[in-house]
Amino acid sequence: MIKLSLILLLLPLTGRAQTADPGKWITVTHTQFTIEYPSSWTADSTGQQGTQYLFFSPPESTEDRFRDNVNVMVQDLTGYNLDLSAFAVLSQDQIKSMVPNAQIIESTAVTSGANRFHRIIYTGDHGSYHLKFEQYYFVRGNTAYVVTFTSEQDKFDQYKQTGERILNSFSLRTTATR
């Protein structure tokens, strides 16, 4: 069975923050996709934890240890013959088996304009953190794109607007092939 990189980013890092008005937005243009993030956030394209990009909220205080984040992962599905629906089922099964106390809140196929994707919202634990995730799955050809917003459960609603704006800005480029 295929074991995909689990589409989570569980980074207990110093600081967390969100501003009500994130100000200017920056567009990242990758060869396969574009995505936007607030200029107040930090972008990381070093490939940390198998990601293409990580976007971190700015620190709110020195006492908080988790930074809200959005990450983009690209996964090669060559040889697995998975369409979007099958990828979503496989991912959901992995969440249930790999994330302690995982609870699926929503799992929905979405069509928005030219974009067709699967959205899943779930909660789960990572060490002492009780987290909430919102993920968008896209499949084009033999490539899956997973975009994940991660926040502590009790802060999710506070950060949801910016997190979802980043998620909703993700778009596959017409030249994206793999």
Tell me briefly what this model is.
It is built from 2 helices and 10 strands. The chain is α+β, with helices and mostly antiparallel strands and 178 residues long.
Could you please say which CATH topology applies here?
Protein Transport Mog1p, Chain A
Overall radius of gyration = 15 Å
Q: Strand order across the biggest sheet?
A: 3-4-5-9-8-7-6
Find the structural class using helix and strand composition: alpha+beta
Low-confidence stretches: 5-21
Give the overall shape, derived from the CA principal axes: globular
Q: H/E element string? A: EEEEEHEEEEHE
Q: Just give the CATH class.
A: Alpha Beta
Number of strands: 10
- Characterize the largest beta sheet: strand count, sense, and whether it forms a barrel: 7 strands, antiparallel
Query: How far do the termini sit from each other?
Result: 21 Å
**Count of distinct structural domains:** 1
Q: CATH superfamily, please?
A: Mog1/PsbP, alpha/beta/alpha sandwich
Helicity, in percent? 10-25%
List keywords for this structure.
178 residues, alpha+beta, Protein Transport Mog1p, Chain A, 3-stranded antiparallel β-sheet, 2 helices
Describe the model.
This protein is 16% helix and 40% strand. The chain is built from two helices and ten strands; from the N terminus they run βββββαββββαβ. It is of the alpha+beta class. A seven-stranded antiparallel beta sheet has the order 3-4-5-9-8-7-6, sandwiched between helices. A three-stranded antiparallel beta sheet has the order 1-2-10. It has helices at residues 84-98, 156-169, and strands spanning 25-29, 33-38, 42-44, 53-56, 69-76, 103-112, 115-126, 129-140, 143-152, 171-172. Strand 3 and strand 4 (53-56) form a beta hairpin. It has one domain (25-172): Mog1/PsbP, alpha/beta/alpha sandwich (Protein Transport Mog1p, Chain A, 3-Layer(aba) Sandwich), CATH 3.40.1000.
